[in-house]
Structures are given as structure tokens and as C-alpha cells.
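sry for the spam today, last one i promise. C-alpha cells for design, 507 residues
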């Protein structure tokens, strides 16, 4: 195969990107990848790890791509002069799969920095090096809040968007369409989930966020796990899921069909599964009972678990409420032999089982540890001196008439066991040891507890990240965790000196 047929792939270490790299290499295509060093390791190490993963999964060794050190957010993509010259000689095609998936605008300008500025920088490179063919991974949700049917030729209809991610991807696609000197082919997948055959995923957002919340909130007592929550849905809402292996194969097959280039392809489900089917199948796979569908107008007052589930899914709720109808005429005509796999019970069970077995991507090798204190934390000083003083000065417990018993078990150097009791909003005592009558017991390590007290970690988020374990009445425990978070914020704002004393116990 001629060197002039090298494909430059961005985003190779991402969820979809790693499948694109696999399928391009399996097809015999020569590939160059643009990659950067990151917290996850040096670029060479990450690509080597990825090739090893595919080698073990496939039972065959894949040829290595050409590695080009670069970064979409850097001037000139951070490419060396030698690498730019090499691309100019050998590359005729760009497959741009890199993206930032943030649904919120971050302090460093994401997702705009990567999705728009990065795309513009890569387009400039293609223009300067006269790379004529551009293949662009967009999203079906550039349609924003339009309800459909959404045609493959549609883009800017003055639509509003649910989040900055959708808006930035729409802006990036407009940049591609307006660029001169390239033949642009655009791929718009809907909600990408794991591998249809293995359930594998490296991305745990969207659909997986619902699974994780349900898994963590379900009662862990003996017997059936229960999650008594009411979803504000009818149950017949369409959820357009497509599996990552099919999306990758579709893109790679279309890339090899020059007669189809220059078009836009919706990579979407043939027949989207309903919200009820997905929920019931996933709940059965996790052994969870108690989830109900309730028409929004009939739901009545929300319980704390209802509120927590809705709060955790707030960013993704527009996609839970039902995705638009996407027309896929171009895709169906070009790939009549390759329909998207049905999201049936078998596929859903594989997706769920993989997610649960991998702890939703929070395995020890992938977890992000809480920063350790520079000296031994002193939990006893906090529980026995600082906390009682702050608690008795606060009106929060009195305002709700708090009457409860709770216990804490803090593991690690400087940790220990403590129990607290309130009656009618007044703190009666803090004692060493666990209380057998405690409504709930919180278990964590000294680093996480210090991060919570110092305001660096939200206690509720720490629970969902499995940094805090709860036994006892889960709903009461989560309500108390929210109250404790409010108490910490009040203490820091009202009594700076007391807050500094709390911090001193963990510094």
C-alpha cells in the first residue's frame, strides 16, 4: 500500500477512537495518530497499551501506527517541523475523532477549546499541507432542541441547545462545511454505548451514569435490592443507542468508499429501544426492584431518592426524555449490508454486566486518588473538639429538629471510630466507638474525610465515587450527608477562625 494513503487519526485513545484505530489497522490501512502526553501516561505508553489491549482481545498482533506528538490545543498543534513535513509527503486523509465531551463550560474553555478551536487548527494544517480528504466525527445531537425528523443535510436552523457540548459540535461542523480545499465527510452517531459483543466501554457517561446511580442508591441489605424511586417518564420514550463497534465499522467502511465521500451520515439506531425496556432490562440485570414510571403530572411530592436520581441525571435528562427521529437515508443506501445492531435484552445485559464488573471505570488502576494530606490527619481533634463546637453554634440541626444517631469509621493513620447523637436539634454527645443503634454508619479513609471537611470533596459525590460506604438507612444517610455539606459551608462562611481550626486538624 502506498505511503500516500496514510490516514491521520485524532482521538485514537478515546472511546470511539480506539475502535477506529483497531478497524483501520485490521483493514490494512496505514495510520498516523496525533497524541499527547497526559496524566494517563506518555503518548508512546498509551498507544502501546492500546495495541496490547487489542492484541489480547483479538488474538493477533496489530501493526503499530506512526506516532506524531501533538496537541489540538497548542499552537500549530504542537507538531515538530519534521512531523509536518512527513505528513505533507504521506498523508491524504484526516479522520478527526478527538473531542471534549464536557456538558459544562470549564475554566479552561472546554468543550470549545478542543471541539472548535482544535478543529479549526487541524483544518489550517490540512489546508497548509494540501491534505484533500477530511472525515469528521460529529454527533447527531447538533440538532439541539429540534424534535425532528432531523435530516442528514440539516445543520444550522437557529436551534437552541441543551448544553455547550452540542453547541460546540455544531460550531465545529459548520467550520468543516465552510472550509475550502477539502472534501468533507461527516459522521453523526447518536448515543454511543459499549461493544455489542463484549459490553466493553472506556466511557461511563450518559446511560452509564443512570446505571451507576441506581447501583449505588439501591438498598444493599439482605434480600432483593430495592430502589423506591419514581421516574418522571411515560416509558415509551425512544432512546437512540448505537454500539461503539458498529459505529467504528460503519465509519471505516465509508472511508473506503470514495463514491460516498462529501456526504453526511447519521449513524443511528434502526428502531430505538424505549426507556421502559432499557430500565426494566438493566434493573433485572443488576437485581434491583422498586423503580416505577410515573406520568410527570401525576408524580406528586418527590422523595429524597427521587431528587437525588434526578439531580445526578440532570445533565443527561434531555436524552432520557426521548431522542428525536433521525433520518438516515444516506447511511442506509451506502451500507445496506450493515444495519445497526438492535439494542435487545442480550446486548443490554452485556453492557450492564461489564459496567458493574469494572466498577463503572473506577477500578484501582484507573481511579483518581484524593490528594493525601502532607502530614498525619488528626480525626480525633476534629470529632472531639472542632465539630462539637461548630455543631452547637449552628442552627441547621435545630431548624429541622434533628433527632438521630450516626457513626463514623475512618480508616488509616489518624482515623478511628466515633458516634454522634442529636435530640430535637441539639447535639447531645460525640463519643468514641460505633453505636449499634445508629441510623447510618459512614466508612471512609482519612484522606477522603479530610477532603470533605476541607471542602475539597462533596460528601454525596464521594459516595457515588465509592470513596464513602454507607450501611443502614441509605435515604436517611444521604439526607444527612447533604445536611452535613450545608453545615460545612455555613461553618466556613460564618466562622472563619473555626474553619481554619478544622483545616488545621488535617494539615
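last one done:
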Amino acid at each position: 500500500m502506498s505511503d500516500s494513503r496514510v490516514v491521520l487519526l485524532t482521538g485514537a485513545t478515546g472511546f470511539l477512537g480506539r475502535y477506529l484505530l483497531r478497524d483501520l489497522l485490521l483493514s490494512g490501512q496505514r495510520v498516523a495518530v496525533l497524541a499527547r502526553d497526559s496524566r494517563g501516561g506518555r503518548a508512546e505508553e498509551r498507544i502501546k497499551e492500546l495495541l496490547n489491549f487489542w492484541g489480547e482481545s483479538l488474538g493477533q498482533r496489530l501493526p503499530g501506527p506512526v506516532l506524531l506528538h501533538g496537541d489540538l490545543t497548542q499552537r500549530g498543534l504542537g507538531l515538530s517541523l519534521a512531523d509536518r513535513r512527513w505528513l505533507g509527503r504521506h498523508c491524504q486523509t484526516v479522520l478527526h475523532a478527538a473531542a471534549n465531551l464536557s456538558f459544562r463550560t470549564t475554566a479552561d474553555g472546554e468543550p470549545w477549546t478542543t471541539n472548535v478551536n482544535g478543529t479549526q487548527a487541524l483544518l489550517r494544517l490540512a489546508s497548509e499541507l494540501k491534505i484533500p480528504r477530511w472525515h469528521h466525527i460529529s454527533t447527531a445531537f447538533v440538532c439541539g432542541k429540534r424534535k425532528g425528523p432531523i435530516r442528514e443535510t440539516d445543520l444550522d436552523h437557529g436551534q437552541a441547545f441543551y448544553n455547550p457540548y452540542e453547541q460546540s459540535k455544531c460550531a465545529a461542523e459548520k467550520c468543516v462545511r465552510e472550509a475550502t480545499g477539502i472534501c468533507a465527510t461527516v459522521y453523526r452517531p447518536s448515543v454511543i454505548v459499549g461493544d455489542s459483543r463484549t459490553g466493553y466501554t472506556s466511557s461511563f457517561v450518559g446511560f452509564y451514569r443512570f446505571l451507576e446511580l441506581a447501583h449505588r442508591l439501591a438498598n444493599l441489605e439482605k434480600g432483593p435490592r430495592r430502589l423506591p424511586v419514581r421516574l418522571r417518564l411515560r416509558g415509551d420514550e425512544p432512546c437512540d443507542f448505537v454500539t461503539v463497534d458498529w459505529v467504528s465499522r460503519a465509519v471505516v467502511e465509508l472511508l473506503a468508499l470514495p463514491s460516498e465521500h462529501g456526504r453526511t451520515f447519521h449513524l443511528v439506531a434502526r428502531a430505538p429501544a424505549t426507556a421502559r425496556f432499557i430500565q426494566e432490562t438493566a434493573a433485572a440485570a443488576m437485581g434491583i426492584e422498586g423503580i416505577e414510571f410515573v406520568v410527570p403530572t401525576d408524580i406528586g411530592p418527590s422523595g429524597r431518592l427521587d431528587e437525588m436520581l434526578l439531580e445526578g441525571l440532570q445533565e443527561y435528562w434531555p436524552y432520557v426524555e426521548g431522542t428525536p427521529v433521525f433520518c438516515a437515508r444516506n447511511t442506509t443506501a451506502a451500507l445496506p449490508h450493515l444495519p445497526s445492531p438492535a439494542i435487545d435484552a442480550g446486548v443490554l445485559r452485556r453492557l450492564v454486566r461489564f459496567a458493574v464488573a469494572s466498577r463503572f471505570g473506577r477500578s484501582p488502576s484507573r481511579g483518581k486518588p484524593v490528594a493525601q494530606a502532607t502530614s498525619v490527619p488528626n480525626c480525633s481533634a476534629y470529632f472531639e473538639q472542632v465539630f462539637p463546637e461548630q455543631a452547637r453554634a449552628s442552627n441547621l440541626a435545630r431548624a429541622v429538629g434533628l433527632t438521630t444517631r450516626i457513626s463514623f469509621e475512618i480508616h488509616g493513620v489518624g482515623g478511628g471510630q466515633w458516634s454522634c447523637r442529636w435530640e430535637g436539634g441539639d447535639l447531645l454527645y460525640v463519643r468514641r466507638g460505633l453505636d449499634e443503634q445508629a441510623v447510618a454508619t459512614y466508612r471512609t479513609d482519612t484522606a477522603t474525610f479530610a477532603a470533605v471537611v476541607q471542602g475539597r470533596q462533596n460528601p454525596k459525590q464521594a459516595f457515588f465515587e465509592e470513596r464513602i460506604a454507607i450501611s443502614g438507612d441509605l435515604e436517611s444517610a444521604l439526607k444527612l450527608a447533604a445536611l452535613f455539606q450545608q453545615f460545612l459551608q455555613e461553618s466556613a462562611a460564618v466562622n472563619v477562625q473555626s474553619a481554619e481550626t478544622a483545616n488545621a486538624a488535617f494539615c
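Residues 365-374, 495-499 have pLDDT under 50 and may be disordered. ok im logging off now
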